[in-house]
Structure formats: structure tokens, C-alpha cells
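Same chain as my last thread, 377 residues:
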Amino acid sequence: MPARTLWLVLLLACFVPATVLAQAPDEAAVEPEAAASAGANDDFDKMMGEWKVIITELRRIQQAYRLAPEKDLPKLRKEYNEVLKSGMDLLPKIEDAAVNRLAASPDDQDAKLFLAKVLSDSLEKDDYPRAYRLVHMLLDNGFDENELLADQVVAAFGADHFEEAETAFKKLREKMLPIDERVGQNGMMATELKEKWAREAELRAKEAEANDLPRVKLSTTQGDLVIELYENEAPDTVGNFVNLVEKKFYDGLPFHRVLPHFMAQGGDPKGDGSGGPGYNIFCECYEDDARHHFAGTLSMAHAGKNTGGSQFFLTFQATPHLDGKHTVFGRVVEGKENLSKLTRREPGGLSTPTADRILKAEVIRKRDHAYEPNKAP
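reply #2:
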């Protein structure tokens, strides 16, 4: 089981709402508002009860696995994975129920505690849009701001809300609250990125109005990613990428290197970071109009100037240290939640998990001209 999944299982296993442990019938008359609140509570309590049963079953299978003979292990692994999947499928439903419960009862501590734990998990998984939404839901319902400021810095930074990240970071420092390395880095970079983001937002508005940039869909083992390509600023890189997609070069290739809080790299037919299409292309990151690395950016991987070919990476969050060093040539416009699901792995690690893959890459929109690689000598 992936470490991040195990972490979530153990974390939420410790949380069982007080209403699940002890529920007393209320004999008083029920007002309509109270009835609506009770309905939200019932859904949340019921699902948390189901979650508790799943956790108990997972622990039972783990214990049986430790004591079982070799011949029984495959069956137990299959059983464990099936129960785990049912738990992972249930979690989004519990989250929705907790949201509904909090809307009906803003002071409900069980719902707040559950959503705070989901927030922590979302930040760990680089699911920043979800984390950002949860931060504001908790703040709007009276959760202690001091307990959320650090998470707000990271969530806002990861969702490209740099002014908000900067403001939250200033509050942290003024209140002399604990600041870890990740929060500190995000807070400091937020100030630097505000100006870059203003330019980026203006470009995106113009692109949305023109609505003519090429788009590619990557169907992956974790769901679809729709990517809009920056042909205006990186025509050669886009030409090469579209050409490879149309040749089905990327179909079946792994995301061989996926690093937490950083990026997911793919496009290597060898799967170890050393492969390519058999030629190199020119870098376009040195041009005055070169785009910058924000959340969900598509950029070229290379081993030095003009050595890119087919390998690319998709960023989980802004990575300004790569600006001017790698050619940005697109961004994820649909399916960013699937990007964050890609299995974290480092090739050559002692226990490297199985890589997620591109099942199929296809061009879903392009301009009316040929797309060819401009090969470097």
C-alpha cells in the first residue's frame, strides 16, 4: 500500500465522531431547521460508522497476513486491496457529508475536525484546489485562524493565489507562530511571484478570448489530463510535442519520476530518464516572452541547453527556480485533480512503486498547419 494512503488510513482511523460513539434520542419536538441538521448529521455519522468498520477489517487482514502461510498471501493481498478500495471510494462521500453537516451546523466540531484532517491530506498529496476550498470552508465556519494560517500559505501558494499566501505568511510571522521549511519557502516565494502572475493572468485572459490554442488529452491510469499548449510563445516545442502525440509516441509511456510538492516527469520510452525520440530540439526558455512555471505547467525536461526531445514534466505547484531554464509550453486546463493522484516515485529507489502511465495521448484541437520538430544539430 502506498505510504500516503497508509498515512491517511491511520490518520482517519483515529477519528471517530462523538456522535458515532454515543447517540442519545431527543424526545423534544424537532423544528424544521433541526430536522435538516439532523439529516446532515445522520449521513455523516452513518458513513463514519462504515469507515470505522473498514478500518477494523483492514487491521484484521493485516494481522492475518503476518501469521499466514505463503500460499495464503495472494488471497489476503487481494482481499486487503478490495477493502482498501472501498474505503478510498467512501472518503469523498464522507467529505461531502461533512461539508453538508458543517453547512447545517456551523459549530459542529466533528465535521470541522474531519475536514481539517482531509485538508492536511490534500496538502500532502499536492491537491491544492481541494485544500484551498477546505481552508476557506473552515475559516468561514469559525475554525481558529491561527491553526490554519500555515496550511493557508501552502494551499494558496499551490493554487496560484500568491497575494493571499503572502498575507497569510505575514500574519504567521507577526504572531510568531511556528513556520516549517515548506511554509517558509512558499511564503517567501509568494511575494516574488505576484508580478509574474499578473502577467500570466493577463495572457490567459487573452488566450481564453481567442480560444484557438492547440489542446492535447493525456488519458492516464489516474484519469484524463487536458493540456492547452502555448504555441504563441513556444512554437517549436509545441510543434515537436504535437508531432509526437500524433505518431502515438507517448502511448503506454510511464510517469517515471514523480516527486512530492514538485512535479511528474514522463515521455521517456526507456522509463529511466535517459531516453528520447532520437533527436534533440532547441530550447525556447531564453526568449523575452517565455512563460513561467505555475501550478499545472507543462515544461520540457532536458540534460542541458538544446538537449530536449520527448521528455516533459508537469508541475504540482509554482517552481520559479526553473524559469529561464526549461521551456514552458502548456498547462493543465482540465483534470488537475488527476495530476495530483500520480504515484510518487524516484527511479532507482530501493522500493520504487509501479509507475502510472499514459494510456493514450491525442490531439483534440490544433491550428491549421503542419506540426513538425525543429531539430537541433
